[in-house]
Amino acid sequence: MTKMTAVDLQQYLHEQQIAAQIIHLPSTTLTVPEAADVLGVSPDQIIKSVLFLAEGEPLLVISCGVARIAWKQLADWLGISRRRLKTGTADQVLAITGYVVGSVPPFGHRHPLRTVVETAVLDQPIIYGGGGDVNALLRLTPGELQRVVGEETAVLAERAS
């Protein structure tokens, strides 16, 4: 199975006329704080695309990179048992999205995915997500993200008490 890259994502952006830009970084950023520091933005502006399997069906959850996804809230939102919810393994992420873990963009995957956006993502003026390569990020607005992935949103981040 061939791995997709930033080149594939750029082609998707062009074909779908998506207002987004791939930013190639001088080095790999392994953490949200590292990426935010390199870009000079708030860590809340870095988003992550996490692949879940809900009763075996893929679901992409997009959340702010520093936030933890509340599994119980996600399971409740989906109307399933928490035990029926799993995160995708690295092999599953590659097989389903086409991208390696750490580079998964919010869209432009090997197969279309049901996607839900955590509501806190929508509070940011500009967001940066996986750019198809581990040293690339995708820059876009939350409005453009929703236009492309759909309007499904939910409060899924664990909140500090």
The top-level CATH class is Alpha Beta
How much of the sequence is in beta strands?
15-25%
In round numbers, the mean pLDDT is 94
Strand order of the largest sheet: 4-2-3-5-8
- Overall shape: it is globular
Distance between the termini: 44 Å
CATH topology: YbaK protein
In the CATH hierarchy, what is the superfamily? Answer: YbaK/aminoacyl-tRNA synthetase-associated domain
List its traits.
5 helices, 8 strands, 161 residues, YbaK protein, three-stranded antiparallel β-sheet, alpha/beta, five-stranded mixed β-sheet, 24% strand, single chain
Plain-language structure description:
The structure is a single chain. This protein has 161 residues and is an alpha/beta fold. It has a single domain (6-154), classed as YbaK/aminoacyl-tRNA synthetase-associated domain (YbaK protein, Alpha-Beta Complex). It is 26% helix and 24% strand. The strands form two sheets. Strands 4-2-3-5-8 form a five-stranded mixed beta sheet. A three-stranded antiparallel beta sheet has the order 1-7-6. Strand 2 and strand 3 form a beta hairpin. The longest helix is centred in the N-terminal third of the chain and has 10 residues, at 6-15. The chain is globular, with a radius of gyration of 15 Å. The model has no long low-confidence stretch (mean pLDDT 94).
